[in-house]
Amino acid sequence: MKHFASLVATFNRFAGGQMALAEVLDRNESGIATATAILKQRFGDRLSESASVREQHGHTTTWIENQPPDAVVFARSTEEVAEVVKVCAEHKVPVIPFGTGTSLEGHVNAPAGGICIDLMEMNNVLNVNAEDLDCVVQPGVTRKQLNEHLRATGLFFPIDPGADASLGGMAATRASGTNAVRYGTMKDNVLNVTAVMPDGSIVRTASRAKKSAAGYDLTRLLVGSEGTLGVITELTLRLQGIPEAISSAVCSFDSVENACNAVIATIQYGIPIARIELLDALHMKASNAYSKLDFEEKPTLFLEFHGSPASVEEQTEAFKVIAGEYGVGAFRWTAREEERLSLWQARHDAYWAEVAFRPGARVVSTDVCVPISRLADCVSETQREIADLGLVGMIVGHVGDGNFHVGLLIDMGNEEEIASAKRMVCSLNSRAISMDGTCTGEHGVGQGKMPYLDEELGGGVTIMRAIKKAIDPDNIMNPGKII
Ligand SMILES: Cc1cc2nc3c(=O)[nH]c(=O)nc-3n(C[C@H](O)[C@H](O)[C@H](O)COP(=O)(O)OP(=O)(O)OC[C@H]3O[C@@H](n4cnc5c(N)ncnc54)[C@H](O)[C@@H]3O)c2cc1C
Predict the structure, then answer these.
(1) Closest ligand 1 atom to the C-alpha of 185?
(2) CA of 140, closest atom in ligand 1
(3) Exposed, middle or buried: residue 294 (CB in 10 Å: 0-12, 13-18, 19+)?
(4) How close is the Cα of 450 to the center of ligand 1, in Å?
(5) By alpha-carbon position, which residue is closest to atom 28 of ligand 1?
(6) In angstroms, rounded to a whole number, what is the distance separating the alpha carbons of residues 472 and 187?
(7) Closest CA to 385 of 439, 423, 434, 436
(8) How confident is the model at residue 342 (pLDDT cuts 50, 70, 90)?
């Protein structure tokens, strides 16, 4: 395969006047055939070429087309991953790491074919070092599996992207979610990874030490690299003590601006809130219908407070005062675990509520993040644009971080609607970037956000290209993503 061989075509992946230059990757037919044959011999039934398995390992979540790999290998150890990568390196064949496939921007697609390495059979928790508040896991362990495993220890892993994603995939996408406002993102919670690099070598990026000044920060280079620099085969993660007291609440506002302004003030006052999530009025309608709830169909905040009983009390009182200044309606509180879990399940099912709201439509789930002071402007301008374009779109977000998602529900048979949606996605990204924000706070770049990186980072993308080229000169690791 010739890497980044030719800028053969410009194609209109994102309409609305913004033409994206797309690097068209050549398929290395003979290399793929040879590597597949070698790996078939080595892995037998643990290599699948079936159409359905290949399709499940391409992109399946949003309107981005499915581009399946040529074969899927189900790996069971770091050494097996290294074997696969070495064969692919020798024959210059793309390698696409795969966790649970919940990424939203075409991350796991194989635009030039190649071999997908499914890591879900590497699903052991290797070590829990309770006294050091860390653990070591294989990449196929999911966040729910880890928290189940930790249940008796009084510890938990706080990063929670809604989907029960793999920890390897979460590290690779630098995921965050509802708890990030208090506990940070994967960037803050991965201490060390073991990774198979594009030449098949196995490297460890750090140690279990809580901090290190030992040279370049390779851990953070791999976290967020979306499988384009190596395959993560082991992770050391920070853990947190389960808070003594947890209290959740739901409250609504008359306008989305008021809801956002209450969030902004909460963050500016330094209230250490654990979760503060916005659903706009249309999303509340969708979530009420899907999760069988009876909340008001108004802009709504879902909140959670963690700490000692006294600190939770103090935080809730402070939040009530702030929210009161923005005309908050009645609160519904719960400290009972069962009720809290079902409340947050409804929040986590937001994506499925969107899917169910307009049967037959495809979902576009796009995220941006802005400095907290620009949150209200960005959300309300976005809502206006959705209305002006006559689209069906709803907003849900981890607003404590200035991060929100727009779920557009598109009739894929309606060309005009598709064009409007593409225009909307383009201007949403530009709006966030113009506010000194980012085109993705947590979903990552994949294929979908590639056109916006230059606008956001300019020369920074040149450095990313140089790093990629130095580490992966033949561009075999998840080609056609990020840059
Ligand atoms: C309903 C729903 C809600 C979501 N909510 C959130 C949210 O709140 N916050 C958020 O951040 N995301 C969210 N997402 C997106 C998604 O869950 C995250 O991006 C998640 O981190 C992807 O993990 P995964 O295991 O599914 O990875 P995959 O989709 O399998 O892979 C994602 C990327 O990581 C690479 N990769 C996977 N495993 C490895 C590995 N071991 N080594 C190297 N590269 C690897 C892949 O090649 C690909 O580029 C949501 C998705 C859905 C469907």
Answers:
(1) 11
(2) 41
(3) exposed
(4) 17
(5) 101
(6) 22
(7) 423
(8) confident
Sorted by sequence, the CB contacts under 8 Å of residue 377 that are 6+ apart come out as: 435
pLDDT, residue 17, reads: 34
Check residue 121 and give its pLDDT: 98
Question: Radius of gyration (Cα) for the chain, nearest Å?
Answer: 22
Ligand 1 nearest atom to the CA of residue 349, by list position: 1
* CB proximity list for 470: less than 8 A, separation 6 or greater: none
pLDDT per position as a tens digit, 161-194: 989 999 999 999 999 999 999 999 999 999 999 9
CA of 444 to the centre of ligand 1 (A): 9
DSSP state of 140: T
Q: What local confidence, expressed as pLDDT, does residue 23 receive?
A: 52
The shares of helix, strand and coil residues in the chain, as percent rounded to the nearest 5, are 40, 20, 40
* Average pLDDT of the segment spanning 284-295: 95
Using alpha carbons, select from 70, 67, 72 the residue that is nearest to residue 110: 67
Task: Print the SS3 string covering 230-278.
Answer: CEEEEEEEECEECCCEEEEEEEECCCHHHHHHHHHHHHHCCCCCCEEEE
Instruction: Report the separation in Å between the CA atom of 476 and the middle of ligand 1, taken as the mean of its atom positions.
Output: 20
Question: How far is residue 218's CA from residue 232's CA, in Å, rounded to a whole number?
Answer: 12
Q: Identify which of 98, 173, 275, 279 to mutate to test ligand 1's pocket (most ligand atoms within 8 A of the CB).
A: 173
**Counting beta carbons within 10 angstroms of the beta carbon of residue 371, is it exposed (0 to 12), middle (13 to 18) or buried (19 or more)?**
middle
Helix axes 78-90, 29-43, angle to 10 degrees: 150
Q: What are the pocket residues of ligand 1 if the criterion is a CB atom closer than 6 Å to any ligand atom?
A: 61, 96-104, 107-108, 119, 139, 161-163, 165-166, 168-170, 172-173, 175-177, 226-227, 231-232, 351, 442-443, 478
Pocket probe for ligand 1: among 80, 85, 98, 122, the residue whose CB has the most ligand atoms within 8 Å is: 98
Does residue 21 carry a pLDDT above 90? no
**How far does the centroid of ligand 1 lie from the alpha carbon of residue 166, in Å?**
7
Distance (angstroms) between ligand 1 centre and the Cα of 360 equals 24
Residue partners of 72: CB distance under 8 A and separation at least 6: 47, 48, 53, 54, 57, 98, 115, 116, 117, 118
Ligand 1 center to residue 169 CA distance, Å? 5
If you measure from the C-alpha of residue 245 to the centroid of ligand 1, how many angstroms do you get, rounded to a whole number? 30
**What's the whole-model pTM score?**
0.94
| Confidence category of residue 343, pLDDT binned at 50, 70, 90 | confident
H or E stretch at 279: strand 275-279
Instruction: Give percent above pLDDT 90 in the chain.
Output: 91
3-state secondary structure of 33: helix
Residue whose Cα lies nearest atom 27 of ligand 1: it is 169
Beta bridge partners, 171, equal none
Q: How far is the CA of 103 from the centre of ligand 1 (A)?
A: 4
